[in-house]
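Example 3.2
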Amino acid sequence: MGRGRMQWLAIGLMVTLAGCAARYPLGIPEDEWEQLSPEARMEARQAQAELDRERAEARREAAEARRAEAEAEALRLSEQRRQAPPGARVQCLVEGEARFGSRWAPIQTLAIDVVDGVQLEVPIRSLDGRYHTTGYAEFDGVTVSVCDRQAGAVRSPGRCVNTAATQGQFLRGTLQRVEADRFIRGRMFCEYPRW
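Structure, written as tokens:
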């Protein structure tokens, strides 16, 4: 290994070690830590370990609560879809591009199954999986909207892609070009589900 490469390796190691500054239990400053007796240090470490366990348990409980809430929401949505009368539920596919920050990128096909009066969160991912955002879909019986904000089509119509159709068109299936400023551009196909 050349001398220049060894120097760069040594510099990299020093920078890495400098970034790993010692951290003492309970956030005790270094000068105070140095003055503690070995017994006090042990007590501080044990107290920190107990705090860490409690925090880990709280995170686990919060994750479990989020999972249970998501399962309940999925069950509720599934039941709404199952009980929706004809004309109150529509299924759509959206293909094209989405705006992720300052650039447009092709997206994975969005599959939307929405019931009249229910707002649905829609994950939007770039085709290569590098970018993601969230959209919100709604259906009012005539128009399907996918918006970039939870406020929806009423408050931010310019930030939504929409497909409006008659019941006959939704029965046959309707394909329309859609575009919303700095959100999505492409095609949206919508139809009533087949029972």
